[in-house]
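User: Predict the structure for this protein chain, please.
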Amino acid sequence: GESYSDLQAALNAAAKGDTVKLLTSVTITELIKIEEAITLDLNGKTITANCRKAIEVYADATITNGTIIANERCVDTRKAVELTQDVNLDKIDLTDAITNDVVINANGHKITTTDAYGIEVTAGKNVTISNADVEMTKAGDYITYAAGFKIANGDYAGATITLENCTITMANTDWAYAVNMPASVKNLNLVIDNCTLEGAVAVQCWGDNNNITITNSELICNYTTSALYTSYCVVLQSDGYSVSENNTLVIDNCEFKYSGVDNFNSPIYSVDDLGTGNTVTVTNCTYGEKVVAD
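Assistant: Here is the predicted structure, written as structure tokens:
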């Protein structure tokens, strides 16, 4: 194939079905765009973006085998992104999917993050995240309200976001949530199925008028400060500034576990409803023993 000295030029020349292979690590100062359904093979190399975003994706694309580092967003996608090997991404953003459904299929590979968020949905209609292994590796209480999967503020107008067959593991820190729905998330259907979610809280909701369904999943609390919190796996939150209201939460066939500090003697709880007008249903669930790391 033809060689290019500029990554964007190589991507521009690629046609649907082509593969662009990175031959050396590169540093970019402006974001690059993928506008065809191609494969970007990082070939074990690194893209370092000295700018807010590294890659914007406008077509169904595959990104494989390497590392992407950016100041804020590594992959900003309006279409589908598929991972075929482990990729070290500080963050994937799903943005502005106003007319198209967005799908990320990680095919069981790992998204490793040291940023505030692993995957963030910031706008859109229907979004599906499947077969992803998201891990926050930076331990310690380094940032407030970090999340492996964050749903950004907005009125989702009945859209459905699905998280299926995923594992999200947040480092032991008191403010890191596996899934976080901030205060202005409204009118969203969140479906979580067959997932393992571990964080200070596995699923945290601050928003209003949302339908949350969690099935066939393992929900693990690893909160490390027993004096501050009790071991709730799912929280409908109120913090004095915002109150979650009129949400419907259904949890079925799940297991609740705790994996935090040894001196944390509180029992495992499923849901802490601190909000107003919420409806909570928990059925066919079990409460596991303390999880001990290998």
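The first strand starts at residue 19 and ends at 21.
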